[in-house]
């Protein structure tokens, strides 16, 4: 790792050293200056004291004008090696005695000055009055060399410099130590950070070297790395999830450049991620929009989302339909900055829809055609049944009419056998007419829309009985229980059903037996069951289903008459009224026919 | 009061039915002259007095018309519609006599202005009963428009 130009290490050293140097220099200068002043003051004081002593001692010789004694006194100064010269002046200012004796006159001041001291020519000179009884009788002069002063001063200076250098050395050492404590953890952090940025490896951790603020910083840095690593893993997982999607997930900037392109997009459009990223989506995929793109962007900005169908081109040139959803991604301040797009390929669906549409059109045409054909058929059938009712019955009436006319007009002239033949013709025609009527009745109940209404069964059955003498005494006995439940039905259909059931009951009896029929109703889970119990010949269980089929007659027509359509009509009519019909019976034990119909729930009456 | 002299007009293409009707009317002792036309066009001509029917002595205007529905050329419905469009026949009694019991025929005929609708009964006895009932109701009790 190259050391940065202004490394923390150097800076820490520089700060510590320059600080120390400045402090030490200022201290030393102040100290030395102070000492210099002190030295001089001390020198003046001691010289002044010496001068006072000598002046006192010189007072007597001067008063007695004894120069020899004065010079002896001065000679005592030999003990003071710094004293270079000394003199005593008399009251008139004339030189009275000198030290050393070899001193020339010009090496001494010619006349004494007033009391005081003075630094002059590298020496300290002092004048002191010689007093006798408080009266100046002369002046003492002392000249001291400053050598001692200078020696001491230099000694001081050397000591100060030595201390300065020592301190600097100490400062340097402590700077180096401090620098290590501060910069090494920082350097470790820096190295870790560089590893992370170079390798993109968030699993790197910085070593924690100290327990101080830098230690906390390292911890924080490592925590941040751990979180980043976790986030990165989560992002990677999410990106993998996005890649699992078979939908194309694309992020594009507001100016249309692709910023994200998942595996789904690669699969749908055939463009690998590296080639798609950074390119314009519209150009890459030659998008055809269902409305002007400006309009789409306007809606996107207004609603935050937009969805629709686009036609786009794959890398291999194939045009595909996609269903697309756009979501606008906004920055924290609400400013839009990119669009998240989810596309899914609906080409197959579109093709299927197209196929279905054409198929539906074909089917519609087919249905229409078939319906028309069916309607034609129904029309033909209706025409047929109309024709049956009208045309086929006419010859039957003619047969009956002529046979009857023959019997009436010529019966007397014909023998018994001829009369019998005519009777057979008459009856056959009659039976054929009944058949035609029943077939018509069956086709009438089988077709057409009916509306169900509340029906009063009691009144309906009474009306039927009144209209048919065969249901009345003495030919038969029909007992209807009072208060029959009201049912939802169709009056004409119900009349047909009841007439047929009563008709069967009076028809199928042993010879010589008077038909007895008991009619009642009961409620059954919100429906009504209407019973018709007779004393007839009964029906074998084997035939209970067959009797309701058309031409399902089980008894010989010769014996009981009937067309074999009556119960089929009943079943068809009951089915049309959402009901059921059935029978409980056994041979020779009479029959109990029942109809189940819906009960009237809300009756206006 | 009995209407015995006024003619009855039977519009019927089936000669068997004409025979049976004549016999039934005789059986019911209806003595009014019975005129018969065999199709719709002839019915219009008879009532309109066209061609040979201009002779009202031989072909008098009837008091009652028995009208079959299923007729050649012009159907009974159309004959009925035509009759009711004629000012002079607005009140003519028209009794539909047909083998059709279809609800659609019934409602159409009444809507067109039929005075009665009778279904041809299957047996000669019943037809004679019908003829008797006709005589009793229409010829003995019913009052015709006198204008």
Keywords:
heterodimer; A: 605 residues; alpha+beta; Beta-Lactamase; Helix Hairpins; 5-stranded antiparallel beta sheet; 17 strands; rod-shaped; B: 147 residues; alpha/beta; Rossmann fold; 5-stranded parallel beta sheet; 41% helix; globular
CATH architecture of the largest domain in chain A: 2-Layer Sandwich
Q: How much strand of chain B?
A: 5-15%
CATH superfamily of the largest domain in chain A: PAS domain
Q: Which term fits the overall shape of chain A?
A: rod-shaped
Greatest interface by residues involved: A-B, 18 and 19 residues
Question: How far is it from the N-terminal to the C-terminal residue of chain B, by CA?
Answer: 17 Å
Shape of chain B: globular
The CATH class assignment of the largest domain in chain A is: Alpha Beta
Q: How many distinct helices of chain B? A: 5
> Fraction of residues of chain B in helices?
40-55%
Describe this structure as you would to a colleague:
The complex is a heterodimer of chains A (605) and B (147). Chain A has 14 helices and 17 strands. Chain A is of the alpha+beta class. Chain A has four domains: 8-161, Beta-Lactamase; 245-345, PAS domain (Beta-Lactamase), CATH 3.30.450; 347-448, Helix Hairpins; 449-598, Histidine kinase-like ATPase, C-terminal domain (Heat Shock Protein 90). In chain A, the strands form four sheets. Chain A has a five-stranded antiparallel sheet. In chain A, strand 3 and strand 4 form a beta hairpin. In chain A, helix 11 (457-467) crosses helix 12 and helix 12 (491-507) runs antiparallel to helix 14 (566-576). The two termini of chain A are 107 Å apart. The mean pLDDT of chain A is 85. Chain B has helices spanning 15-27, 40-48, 76-85, 103-112, 124-141; strands at 8-11, 34-37, 64-67, 93-98, 116-119. Chain B starts with 7 loop residues before the first strand and ends in a 6-residue tail after the last helix. In chain B, helix 1 (15-27) packs across helix 5 (124-141) and helix 2 (40-48) packs parallel to helix 3 (76-85). Chain B has one domain (8-140): Response regulator (Rossmann fold). In chain B, helix 4 links the parallel strand 4 and strand 5. The model of chain B has no long low-confidence stretch (mean pLDDT 91). Chain B is an alpha/beta fold and 147 residues long. Chain B is globular. Chain B has five helices and five strands, in the order E-H-E-H-E-H-E-H-E-H. Chain B is 41% helix and 15% strand. The chains are: A alpha+beta (605), B alpha/beta (147). Chains A and B meet through helix 9 and helix 10 of A and helix 1 and helix 5 of B.
């Amino acid at each position: 790792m190259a050391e940065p130009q202004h490394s923390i290490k150097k800076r820490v050293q520089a700060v510590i050293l320059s600080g120390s140097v400045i402090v030490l220099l200022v201290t030393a200068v102040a100290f030395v200056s102070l000492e210099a002043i002190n030295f001089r003051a001390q020198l003046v004081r001691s010289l002044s004291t010496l001068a006072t002593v000598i002046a006192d001692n010189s007072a007597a010789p001067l008063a007695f004008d004894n120069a020899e004694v004065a010079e002896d006194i001065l000679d005592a100064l030999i003990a003071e090696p710094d004293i270079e010269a000394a003199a005593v002046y008399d009251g008139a200012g004339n030189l009275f005695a000198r030290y050393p004796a070899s001193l020339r006159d010009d090496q001494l001041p010619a006349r004494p000055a007033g009391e005081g001291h003075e630094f002059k020519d590298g020496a300290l000179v002092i004048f002191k009055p010689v007093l006798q009884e408080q009266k100046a009788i002369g002046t003492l002069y002392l000249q001291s060399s400053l050598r001692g002063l200078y020696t001491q001063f230099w000694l001081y200076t050397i000591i100060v410099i030595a201390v300065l250098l020592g301190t600097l050395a100490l400062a340097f050492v402590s700077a180096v130590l401090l620098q290590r404590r501060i910069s090494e953890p920082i350097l470790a952090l820096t190295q870790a950070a560089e590893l992370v940025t170079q390798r993109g490896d968030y699993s790197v951790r910085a070593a924690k070297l100290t327990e101080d603020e830098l230690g906390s910083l390292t911890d924080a840095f490592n925590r941040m790395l751990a979180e980043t690593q976790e986030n990165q893993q989560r992002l990677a997982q999410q990106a993998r999830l996005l890649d699992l999607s078979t939908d194309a997930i694309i992020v594009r900037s507001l100016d249309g450049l692709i910023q994200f392109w998942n595996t789904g997009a690669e699969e749908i459009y055939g463009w690998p991620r590296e080639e798609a990223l950074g390119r314009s989506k519209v150009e890459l995929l030659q998008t055809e929009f269902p409305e002007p793109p400006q309009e789409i962007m306007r809606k996107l900005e207004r609603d935050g989302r937009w969805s629709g169908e686009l036609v786009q081109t794959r890398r291999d040139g194939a045009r595909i339909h996609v269903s697309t959803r756009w979501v606008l991604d906004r920055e924290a301040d609400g400013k839009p900055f990119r669009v998240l797009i989810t596309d899914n390929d609906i080409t197959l669906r579109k093709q299927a829809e197209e196929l279905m549409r054409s198929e539906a059109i074909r089917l519609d045409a087919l249905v229409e055609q078939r319906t028309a054909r069916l309607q034609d058929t129904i029309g033909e059938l209706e025409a047929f049944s109309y024709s049956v009712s009208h045309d086929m019955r006419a010859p039957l009436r003619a047969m009956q009419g002529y046979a009857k006319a023959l019997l009436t007009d010529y019966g007397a002239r014909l023998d018994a056998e001829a009369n019998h033949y005519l009777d057979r013709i008459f009856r056959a025609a009659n039976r054929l007419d009944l058949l035609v009527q029943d077939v018509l009745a069956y086709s009438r109940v089988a077709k057409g829309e009916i509306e169900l209404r509340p029906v009063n069964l009691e009144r309906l059955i009474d009306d039927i009985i009144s209209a048919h003498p065969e249901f009345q005494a003495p030919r038969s006995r029909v007992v209807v229980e009072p208060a029959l439940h009201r049912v939802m039905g169709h009056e004409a259909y119900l009349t047909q059903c009841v007439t047929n059931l009563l008709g069967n009951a009076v028809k199928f009896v042993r010879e010589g037996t008077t038909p007895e029929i008991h009619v009642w109703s009961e409620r059954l889970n919100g429906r009504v069951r209407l019973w018709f119990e007779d004393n007839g010949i009964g029906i074998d269980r084997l035939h209970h289903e067959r009797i309701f089929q058309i031409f399902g007659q089980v008894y010989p027509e010769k014996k009981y008459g009937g067309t074999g359509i009556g119960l089929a009509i009943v079943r068809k009519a009951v089915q049309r009224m959402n009901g059921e019909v059935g029978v409980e019976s056994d041979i020779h034990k009479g029959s109990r026919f029942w109809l189940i119909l819906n009960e009237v729930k809300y009756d206006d009456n | 009061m009995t209407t015995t002299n006024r003619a009855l007009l039977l519009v019927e293409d089936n000669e068997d039915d004409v025979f049976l009707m004549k016999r039934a009317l005789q059986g019911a002792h209806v003595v009014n002259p019975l005129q018969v036309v065999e199709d719709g066009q002839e019915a219009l001509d008879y009532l309109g007095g066209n061609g040979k029917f201009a002779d009202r002595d031989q072909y008098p205007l009837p008091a009652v018309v028995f009208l079959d529905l299923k007729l050649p050329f012009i159907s009974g419905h159309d004959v009925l519609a035509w009759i009711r469009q004629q000012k002079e026949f607005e009140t003519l009694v028209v009794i539909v006599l047909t083998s059709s019991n279809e609800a659609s025929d019934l409602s159409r005929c009444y809507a067109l202005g039929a005075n009665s609708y009778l279904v041809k009964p299957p047996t000669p006895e019943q037809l004679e009963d019908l003829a008797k009932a006709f005589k009793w109701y229409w010829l003995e009790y019913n009052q015709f428009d006198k204008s």
